[in-house]
Structures are given as structure tokens and as C-alpha cells.
């Protein structure tokens, strides 16, 4: 049955669209989008990404609360910059491939292997080394506990151990023995002082885990 005539005189809001017209319009839209993307990609390819090196470049690093300027090859690791350019030899280089953790530092409070971190990539981040744990003459509780509990022998792995253990007790003052074992699981100690490292870290945690005057 045909609908009744509409005497209002109004016209349809949308024109009738044929199937062919719909697909033709969709294809044109897709083509336009593809061409726009191609032009953008071509512009990016023409300008290219920013490239630095191989010549030395200058930049600033925030280390132990102060800004220092360095001029190094962009491929230089943070460990190399600390030791060879800034004389901060507390950070050790053992394997130089991120397997022994002797080079451990903090980046924004999190442990990191400085031998596997480019100094260039550490720009804008807060770097803390073993030299920055103490507050003046006041040792960090973990440093003090390592001394009191004889948690070192040759001492080569000690700075990295201290950095990982200090990060643990500051993050979790109620850490357990399993937590400590997990924290140092990537550290290699050829002298085998692990039991005393565990003992020292738990003692530091029970003592508060932070230097005096630090909340």
C-alpha cells in the first residue's frame, strides 16, 4: 500500500545516493588519504631523522645532584663517562656487557647497568652513583651495614651491590631475605660474600633504610 501524500511541501533532508555513487566516493576518499600519507612520508624522508656523531658532542648530565657538562662520542657509555671523563671510579666495569652488575647506578631512582646505557640517553635523568649515596660524612645505612657486617672481600663488586641493595631498602624497608636475594640476583661476587650481603641489607632495612635527616 502506498504511503499517503505529504502535503507539507517539505523535501527530503538527504538526497538519494546510488550504490555506484557511494563506492565511487569511498574510493576517492581512500585515494586522497593515501596520497596525503605518501606526501607526508616523502617529506619526512627528505628531511631525515636528526643524526649526531661520530664526532664528539657536548651535553649536560645530572649526577648526584649537580649538573656536569661532557664532550664525548655519542656512542660512549655512561660507565665510561663516569670513570674516564669525570674521574668517578666508584662505578666499576667488569663484564662490560650487562652481565655482572658491577657498574650499577640509579637512573631516576631505579637500578641500571651503566655499561649498557649510553651517556647521551641519560640526558634529563637523575643519575646517582655510589659516590652520591652518602650525605656528607654520613654513610647510607646500607654502606654502613656492609662495613659492620663484613659484606665485602676484594670489594670490586661492592659498589654495584650497595646500589642495588640501597634501592631495595629505600623502596621496601620491610624487605625479606627473598627480596634481597632477588635484588642481587644479577650481581656476580667471585669472593662469595653473598651471606654477609644478605645480612647487611636486612640490618640496614631494620634500621630505617635511609640516611639521617632524609625522609
Order of strands side by side in the largest beta sheet?
2-1-5-3-4
Gap between N and C termini, in Å? 84 Å
Note the run of SSEs as H and E: HEEHEEEHHHH
The CATH superfamily of the largest domain is identified as [2Fe-2S]-binding domain
Strands, count: 5
Provide the domain count: 2
How many helices does DSSP assign?
6
Uncertain segments are: none
- Give the % helix: 25-40%
Largest sheet: 5 strands, mixed
- The CATH topology of the largest domain is what? DNA polymerase, domain 1
Question: What CATH architecture label of the largest domain applies?
Answer: Orthogonal Bundle
| Rg from alpha-carbon coordinates | 31 Å
What oligomeric state do these chains adopt? single chain
**Given this structure, which CATH class of the largest domain is correct?**
Mainly Alpha
Mean pLDDT: 86
Give the strand content: 5-15%
Shape: elongated
Could you say which structural class the secondary elements and strand pairing correspond to? alpha+beta
Amino acid at each position: 500500500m502506498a504511503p499517503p501524500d505529504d502535503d507539507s511541501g517539505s523535501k527530503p533532508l538527504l538526497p538519494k545516493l546510488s550504490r555506484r555513487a557511494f563506492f565511487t566516493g569511498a574510493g576517492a576518499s581512500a585515494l586522497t588519504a593515501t596520497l596525503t600519507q605518501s606526501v607526508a612520508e616523502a617529506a619526512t624522508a627528505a628531511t631525515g631523522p636528526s643524526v649526531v656523531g661520530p664526532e664528539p658532542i657536548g651535553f649536560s648530565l645530572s649526577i648526584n645532584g649537580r649538573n656536569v657538562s661532557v664532550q664525548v662520542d655519542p656512542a660512549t657509555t655512561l660507565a665510561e663517562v663516569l670513570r674516564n671523563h669525570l674521574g668517578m671510579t666508584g662505578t666499576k666495569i667488569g663484564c662490560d656487557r650487562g652481565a655482572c652488575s658491577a657498574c650499577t647506578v640509579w637512573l631516576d631512582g631505579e637500578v641500571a647497568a651503566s655499561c649498557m646505557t649510553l651517556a647521551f640517553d641519560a640526558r634529563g635523568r637523575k643519575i646517582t652513583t655510589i659516590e652520591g649515596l652518602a650525605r656528607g660524612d654520613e654513610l647510607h645505612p646500607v654502606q654502613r651495614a656492609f662495613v659492620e657486617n663484613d659484606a665485602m672481600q676484594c670489594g670490586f663488586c661492592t659498589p654495584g651491590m650497595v646500589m642495588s641493595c640501597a634501592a631495595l631498602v629505600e623502596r621496601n624497608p620491610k624487605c625479606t631475605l627473598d627480596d634481597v636475594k632477588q635484588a642481587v640476583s644479577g650481581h656476580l661476587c667471585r669472593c662469595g660474600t653473598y651471606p654477609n650481603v644478605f645480612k647487611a641489607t636486612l640490618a640496614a632495612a631494620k634500621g630505617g633504610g635511609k640516611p639521617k635527616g632524609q625522609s
